[in-house]
Design goal:
Rossmann fold, 7 helices
């Protein structure tokens, strides 16, 4: 696929040498805290991060809790840690069924050609009662809806890696169809975290957790 080759080339040029930024924003901190509680409750001993980049989050989890962590990315990053190189649009992934307690995907889903299949594959890899934590750009937050009504979605998101587009309803549908339950959305942005009375669908970042049924 020619578009995939171009995307990989741009990705390597942008991130390969320098790595990605530290995942220590509000959503990264919340994920760290939520996974930490699972570890402390003896409900998590393994974490896999899809689109792991510089692996700052799973590295911190490993250093603090000494749990098994695995990163997955299709580009070798400068600061990668315990990372397996694999294209997330290439199925199936090289992992056994029911093999991880927690799966992460942080700001990656929009860069995939087959996001629905990705969610299904993560469900396969997670253990029963396993948790999935995901963040992705909301394609139609309140500020973008006027443009969206007039077909200007692609002008709103001009990033070359922005291949697929999502809103709260789309994500919820994907996760339900894959077999997940207990799907919850959270306000975690700098503004949305202070305005918790407003729905997550209003803001630019969508953060959800979901559970694989026992």
């Amino acid at each position: 696929m020619e578009s995939k080759k171009k995307t990989k080339k741009m990705y390597e040029e942008t991130y390969g040498e320098f790595g990605t930024s530290k995942q220590d924003d509000l959503s990264g901190k919340k994920i760290f805290g939520m996974v930490g509680k699972l570890v402390e409750a003896d409900k998590c001993s393994s974490v896999i991060d899809f689109g792991s980049g510089s692996c700052s989050l799973i590295r911190r989890l490993h250093e603090k809790y000494k749990i098994k962590v695995t990163g997955v990315d299709f580009v070798k990053h400068k600061d990668s840690f315990n990372t397996i190189l694999h294209d997330l649009d290439d199925f199936p992934y090289p992992f056994e069924n029911n093999s991880y307690d927690v799966a992460l995907s942080i700001g990656v889903l929009h860069a995939m050609h087959f996001p629905k299949e990705f969610v299904k594959e993560c469900h396969r890899i997670l253990k029963p009662n396993g948790m999935f934590f995901l963040t992705v750009v909301n394609s139609i937050p309140v500020k973008s809806r006027p443009g969206y009504l007039f077909g200007k979605l692609y002008k709103v998101h001009s990033c070359p890696f922005h291949i697929s587009f999502f809103n709260k309803a789309t994500l919820e549908k994907y996760f339900k169809e894959a077999g997940f339950s207990d799907i919850k959305f959270y306000n975690v942005g700098r503004i949305s975290s202070r305005l918790k009375v407003l729905p997550p669908s209003w803001f630019s970042l969508l953060f959800l957790s979901a559970k694989k049924k026992a």
